[in-house]
Amino acid sequence: MKSLYQFIVKPNGERYNNTKKIGDTSLLLNTSIESFRHINKEAIVVSTPAAFNTGINVGDTILIHHNIFRRYYDIKGKEKNGSTYFKDNMYFVNPDQVYGYKKDNDWVMVNNRCFVKPIKETSSYSNEKEQKHIGILKYGNNVLEALQINPGSLVGFTPNSEWEFIIDDERLYCMKSNDIAIKYERKGHEEEYNPSWAKSS
Fold it and tell me: How many Cβ atoms from other residues are within 10 Å of residue 141's Cβ?
């Protein structure tokens, strides 16, 4: 079973990440199918495109666009699968909707994507918990490496370019390389910000 130009995947877990385990109790976090924040963005590859080699193999865990597993309500108010649904809890994913894959227990970015970790706001004049449009590069790519922007670099990014992901219990922002607007010199006091709700337990 192969698609000519698309991946076929299944969710790594459930379609939605709606629950959080606290001790022996499962807490329901969300009941809405519209919330992109709670849609699962990790998938297991069932088959790869037949037309070309992507470097991604069957069984790999990949990071995907937040709409792949989304359900929606039609004009009559009935809950439906999206256009990416194939059958038996499997879905089609275009190659440009894949942002990274796991190799040797680490994430490798594709399609010019990168992930940035927000940092804590230190100003006593702000009531925000994290600094806006600035963070520490967590997962980079070849384009950024050529510019000497590597994991651990302090970077600034353009407004509205970031999408929230929870990866390995860390809240990260996904964006394209050209959304990284500046590399700052680190002063040494920058502290990563990870809200408690991002952790699985």
Answer: 20
pLDDT digit string, tens, across residues 26-62: 766 766 666 677 789 999 999 999 999 999 999 999 9
pTM: 0.88
Tell whether 104 and 13 lie within a shared domain.
yes
Question: Do 85 and 77 touch, CB atoms closer than 8 A?
Answer: no
Whole-angstrom distance, CA of residue 166 vs CA of residue 180: 20
> How far, in Å, CA of 131 to CA of 154, rounded?
12
The percent of residues above 90 in pLDDT, for the chain, comes to 68
Residue 119 belongs to a domain with what CATH number? 2.30.33.40
Q: Name the residue range of residue 32's domain.
A: 7-108
* Residue 61: its H or E element: strand 61-64
